[in-house]
Amino acid sequence: LRFDEKVRVVVFKSEVKGVFCAGADLKERAKMDDAEVGHFVKRLRNLMDEIAALPVPTIAAIDGYALGGGLELALACDLRVAASSAKMGLIETTRGLLPGAGGTQRLPRCVGIGLAKELIFTGRQIDGQQAASMGLVNHTVPQNNEGDAAYQRALTLAKEILPQAPFAVKMGKLAINRGMEV
């Protein structure tokens, strides 16, 4: 995707109804030794950083659960659209873990330090409406019968981006991202 000039916007969605991304398989992780866990977390962090660094806008269509690494995936995207019934949270502390794929950096940038600390410390899950009120998602929509309301809204948003000058959109993303780091 990084090098395909025809790609103008990337929308991340799930093919599993009711789930955007439920995060890492903790049963699989429990079987890993410390070295394997370190390698696993590093690979996840690198993946999220690669998604965040894509030169085109990325949109997460959250039509269901986005927990742990699933919310970290959504946070790696530029824009987030959620169904009002979606459930989101960095729930790692409820499992004796720490968000390891960028959530501790991206969530505070998105919602502010105090609110990010509260959500991470408590492991609280919030719905799409709550996420919109705190600025975690750009848009929230009522879920439809097909279970893809957020995806449909994400497509509408992508179609608003498509007619804009590709170079200007890419440079706008780069300028915003670099500006957030200084």
TrEMBL record:
Residue ranges of the TM segments: none
InterPro entries: ClpP/crotonase-like_dom_sf (IPR029045), Enoyl-CoA_hyd/isom_CS (IPR018376), Enoyl-CoA_hydra/iso (IPR001753)
The UniProt record lists the keyword Lyase: yes
Cited Pfam families: ECH_1
GO function terms (MF aspect): lyase activity
Signal sequence segment: none
GO annotation, biological process: fatty acid beta-oxidation
Keyword match DNA damage: no
Gene3D superfamilies: 2-enoyl-CoA Hydratase, Chain A, domain 1
Keywords from the named record: Lyase
Designated name of the protein: ECHD2 protein
Organism: Balaeniceps rex
Gene: Echdc2
